[in-house]
Structure formats: C-alpha cells, structure tokens
Specification:
54 residues, flat
Length: 54
C-alpha cells in the first residue's frame, strides 16, 4: 500500500549536545560591493547594479 511508510533500519539522531551548544559567529562579514544589489533599483531587476547597467 503506497500510503503506508515502511521504515527499515534505525533513524540517526542528527542533533547532539555539541550541535546544540554550537554558536554562530557574531562578527561582521565583508561582502564586496560588486556582489551587492542596487538598493535604489526601481526597474524590478535587483541583479543590475550601476556598474552593470552601463
């Protein structure tokens, strides 16, 4: 029957205490200006920057 799920084997516990205790860094991340979108883009294409338009 397709509506019944058959689980064969054991499920692996992916979340352990070390994962719970891990913390993301709070440092700022440097992003090159050429990778940012134009904040004043009114044409609907957010991928175009002033340098890419010319």
């Amino acid at each position: 029957m397709d509506s019944q799920v058959r689980i064969e084997g054991y499920l692996v516990d992916l979340v352990d205490n070390a994962w719970r205790a891990d913390v993301l860094p709070k440092d700022d991340i440097r992003v090159p200006l050429c990778e940012l979108t134009d904040p004043e883009s009114d044409n609907g294409d957010a991928n175009l920057t002033p340098a890419a338009k010319s």
